[in-house]
Amino acid sequence: MKIGLVTPYVYPLPGGVNQHVRYLYENLRLREHDVRIITSSHGLQRASEGDVIRIGKGISVPSNGSVGTVTVSPRYLSQVREVLEREQFDLLHFHEPFVPFLSLVTLRLSKSVNVATFHAYGGFSPAYEFGSRVLGGYARRLHGRIAVSAAARHFIDRYFPGDYKVIPNGVDTARFARAVPIARWQDGTRNILFVGRFEPRKGLLDLLKAYRILRRTGCNCRLLVIGGGPQAKEARRYLQTRRLGGVEFLGRVTDEERDALFKTADVYCSPATGRESFGIVLLEAMAAGTSIVCSDIHGYKGVVRRDREGLLVPPHQPKALAAALARLLSDDALRERMSSSGLERAEEFSWERVTAKVEEYYGFVIRRLAAQGQLPPGFSAEVPADPRQVIPAA
Which domain does 103 fall in, by range? Predict the structure, then answer.
């Protein structure tokens, strides 16, 4: 089939949705589909480059306790119509289809099979509450709906009720298998790793408070911090005013450096406070064989199983976080057991398996439309066979 993956976030800038799109693109191509990525530009990117098609400009805006993107263009209708007429997609796969405005315009003009993946999770959302009142027509244009977790399904179903298939995010297990620990930090001091944006919902300040408790109780450990964001000055000020050493702010690093740091860490810690739909970074820690301490929140419990791949603690409780970290750092056998369990668990989320599930769902949606005589005029590929009805050759 010819498939268009639509992301409202500026590809390939860092982010969970864009990472999902990247690996889905690569693995769908390995399965011999013809795939394009439809996104916007931000800065000086060219209008198109290889299989990446850019329409409009992305503007950063606050969203769900973090930073999102709104795409704008004075010629959206004509630009999107031109791309769709030229490419003739059999299927368009929208990621966060209701983020303004690229996805909405493309969905409105689509003559293809339309499938959407919903990644977000949160509490009450005024934006989605408003959207549920005005975007019903757009939602009805979706032929299939995927949620990346039960938490994400629960969130979106509140505003746009429907039939959602849960297909999780994936992880590149081979990439982490190739990674090598960094010798600089293999000096006998235990390493705790944090990866994330410096913003309240990621819980970095709670981790710094927990780390202070660990140091005051004599724990020989180091904290490696990857990322940046609006709380950077506050975090550094916390360390300076308390004369707290052993914290390495590494800023933004390359993918290879990040993989190596996962391998270097004795414990990966994600003290997020909520509004996490899945936790891709937890999968990455497991794929690297790193034991985990993370918050006991909805989006994480579908990835890390309590006391198997990691220890789960209530959010916003630095003392409980410190106790869990101290337990793991001091128990080599427990870390080893959680490392082995994590490696096995990560294989269940390999991108090969996740892409196979997505492809199978595409086929289910297309067969359902064909049986109802409702395949859109833009679909020209063969209707995929039902794998349950395929008789193996003798």
Answer: 2-170+351-389
- Whether 13 contacts 45, CB under 8 Å: no
Amino acid of residue 357: K
Q: In which element (H, E) is residue 239 found?
A: helix 232-241
CA distance 388 to 385: 9
Same domain, 40 and 152: yes
Using CA atoms, how far apart are residues 239 and 236, in angstroms rounded to an integer? 5
pLDDT given at position 16: 83
Taking only the tens place, the pLDDT of each residue in 120-165 is 876 657 778 888 888 999 999 999 999 999 989 999 999 999 999 9
In this predicted structure, what is the pLDDT of residue 392? 61
Three-class SS state of 69: strand
Domain match, 93 and 198 both? no
Same structural domain, 181 and 321: yes
Please give the single-letter amino acid code of residue 336.
E
What angle is formed at CA 346 by the lines to CA 366 and CA 177, rounded to 5 degrees? Answer: 115
Cα separation, 292 vs 392, in Å, equals 43
DSSP for residue 171:
B
Give the number of domains in the chain: 2
- Residue 28 CA to residue 51 CA, distance in Å, equals 13
Tens digit of pLDDT for each residue in 249-269?
999 999 999 999 999 999 999
Residue written as token pair 């990439």: 175
Task: Look up the pTM and report it.
Answer: 0.87
Q: Name the token pair of 100.
A: 């303004």
159: helix, coil or strand?
helix
